[in-house]
């Protein structure tokens, strides 16, 4: 166990970190903070939800000269929501050191960002597209940057991002420190990374599995057409506090969110075609618990830290294992437990095995619940709610009428009637979910797997540049 006070960081940061409720450093923090303070280039890999943001954030803030008005640190993140979240975490870490942090991302008025840049931020967190935009307009000067971080480094170095990243790198001084962090780091991508790093230290937090042990991982074998009924029943049986359902495409996400609402769930979708204001408002409602089910494309797969996400459903199995690791990593964060259910059609079983080979973890088969199990699950929910209401008290005003009811009727019947009135019966409202084309059949053998960049993985790209077309959040 490493205490933050053993890590040679200033009292101001210690105070902020304490206020954030961090008691001791996580393993990746303990391993990389000292190296980073020495000025080493680092590739840091550790499981999802284990504090990588503070692992690069704490030493970065430690090294900011707060008397200097220049931008000294730059962090690049793949999505707008993540850029905002990272800037907020850094703001909290740097609060007592009075460090100025600014997030710049697409979809927000650029003039407003230009005005904010005039307030002399010392750290910028941004998405690639918008950072480049500012660099080209000369509203962002990176001549004094001494530290550059790629959060979700493997994603940032994927095709579709690499050109932008290289362009940004060329406006940052060469004698900078470069830090790369992610939960996944496939070898070919690590090799690309090493090209622009100086003698990097590879820090991998030793773990048997790539995924978090606190996440129970299941797969449900299901035909495409049955998926939605199975999802509804699982939601009824498992009653998640907050759930994320991942779908493969934007259309899928829209249809699923609509269908879930038709069946009485509080669901909203998030994907790259929505306005930025809408994306942020959906996420805010989800964090506040006004939405129970967030339906998302991979736009929400990486880095997002939303406490209280208890269940992740992969309505469609992801195309690559890395995506799986990040998607399910939205639960089971910072020591909490979580559950992940992955739907797989019979002909997609090869993908499931490839995921398992990469994560070094078997998924447990789960039988789809029946309608009556879903019904019972919902009744149990009501039962729990009644139990909670009794514990909370303040039911005095109901007692007189309750007594009256019990003089006229049998207590079990009274309770059953109350359960019936309060229970949301599993809904069979017909919904319209278009079939997704199944993934191309894949053998159960990772060696036969073509690279992530190969066009065979992007059968729906219609010849456009890979990745960018497939991902729906690059417009930043
Ligand atoms: N030392 C710590 N003690 C307790 N909580 C921590 C500590 N460090 C970070 N956290 C909290 O843990 C949560 C997860 O951290 P963070 O988002 O940095 O994880 P991550 O490793 O970047 O995950 P991902 O791979 O999904 O991006 C955050 O809410 C963060 O504030
Ligand atoms: Mg992260």
UniProtKB/TrEMBL annotation:
Superkingdom to which the source organism belongs: Bacteria
Electron transport keyword on record: no
Motif Q motif boundaries: 2-30
Keyword ATP-binding belongs to the record: yes
Biased composition range(s): Basic and acidic residues: 427-447
GO CC annotation terms, alphabetical: cytosol; ribosome
Domain DEAD-box RNA helicase Q, chain residue ranges per copy: 2-30
Record keywords: ATP-binding, Cytoplasm, Helicase, Hydrolase, Nucleotide-binding, RNA-binding, Stress response
InterPro entries: DEAD/DEAH_box_helicase_dom, DEAD/DEAH_RhlB, DEAD_box_RNA_helicases, DEAD_helicase_CshA, Helicase_ATP-bd, Helicase_C-like, P-loop_NTPase, RNA-helicase_DEAD-box_CS
Known partners and oligomeric status: Oligomerizes, may be a member of the RNA degradosome.
Function noted in UniProt: DEAD-box RNA helicase possibly involved in RNA degradation. Unwinds dsRNA in both 5'- and 3'-directions, has RNA-dependent ATPase activity.
Name of the protein this chain belongs to: DEAD-box ATP-dependent RNA helicase CshA
Source organism (scientific name): Heyndrickxia ginsengihumi
């Amino acid at each position: 166990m490493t205490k933050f006070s053993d890590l040679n960081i200033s009292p101001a940061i210690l105070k902020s970190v304490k206020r954030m409720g961090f008691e001791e450093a996580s393993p990746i923090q303990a391993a990389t903070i000292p190296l980073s303070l020495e000025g080493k280039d680092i590739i840091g890999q550790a499981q999802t939800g284990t504090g990588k943001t503070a692992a690069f954030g704490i030493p970065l803030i430690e090294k900011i000269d707060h008397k200097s008005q220049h931008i000294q640190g730059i962090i690049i993140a793949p999505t707008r929501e993540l850029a905002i979240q990272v800037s907020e975490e850094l703001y909290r870490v740097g609060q007592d050191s009075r460090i100025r942090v600014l997030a710049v991302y697409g979809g927000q008025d650029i003039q407003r960002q230009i005005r904010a840049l005039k307030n002399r931020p010392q750290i910028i967190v941004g998405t690639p597209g918008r950072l480049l935009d500012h660099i080209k307009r000369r509203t962002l000067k990176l001549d004094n940057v001494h530290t550059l971080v790629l959060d979700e480094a493997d994603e940032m170095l994927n095709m579709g991002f690499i050109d932008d990243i290289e362009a940004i790198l060329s406006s940052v001084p060469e004698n900078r420190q470069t830090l790369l962090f992610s939960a996944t780091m496939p070898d070919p991508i690590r090799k690309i990374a090493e090209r622009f790093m100086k003698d990097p230290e590879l820090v991998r937090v030793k773990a048997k599995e790539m995924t978090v042990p606190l996440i129970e991982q299941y797969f449900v074998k299901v035909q495409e057409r049955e998926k939605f009924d199975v999802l509804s029943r699982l939601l009824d049986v498992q009653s998640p506090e907050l759930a994320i359902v991942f779908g493969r495409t934007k259309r899928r996400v829209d249809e699923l969110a609509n269908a879930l609402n038709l069946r009485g769930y509080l669901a909203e979708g998030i994907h790259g075609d929505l306005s930025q204001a809408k994306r942020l408002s959906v996420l805010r409602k989800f964090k506040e618990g006004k939405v129970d089910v967030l339906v998302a494309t991979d736009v929400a797969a990486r880095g997002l830290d939303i406490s209280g996400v208890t269940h992740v459903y992969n309505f469609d199995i992801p195309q690559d294992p890395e995506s799986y690791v990040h998607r399910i990593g939205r639960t089971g964060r910072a020591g909490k437990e979580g559950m992940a259910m992955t739907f797989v059609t019979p002909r997609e079983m090869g993908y499931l095995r490839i995921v398992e080979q990469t994560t070094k973890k078997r998924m447990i088969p789960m039988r789809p619940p029946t309608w009556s199990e879903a019904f019972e699950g919902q009744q149990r929910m009501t039962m729990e709610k009644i139990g909670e209401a009794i514990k909370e008290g303040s039911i005095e005003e109901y007692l007189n009428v309750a007594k009256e009811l019990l003089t006229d009727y049998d207590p079990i019947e009274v309770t059953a009637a109350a359960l019936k009135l309060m229970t949301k019966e599993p809904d069979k409202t017909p919904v319209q979910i278009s079939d997704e084309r199944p993934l191309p059949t894949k053998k159960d053998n990772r060696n036969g797997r073509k690279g992530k960049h190969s066009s065979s993985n992007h059968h729906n790209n219609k010849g456009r540049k890979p990745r960018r077309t497939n991902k729906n959040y690059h417009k930043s």
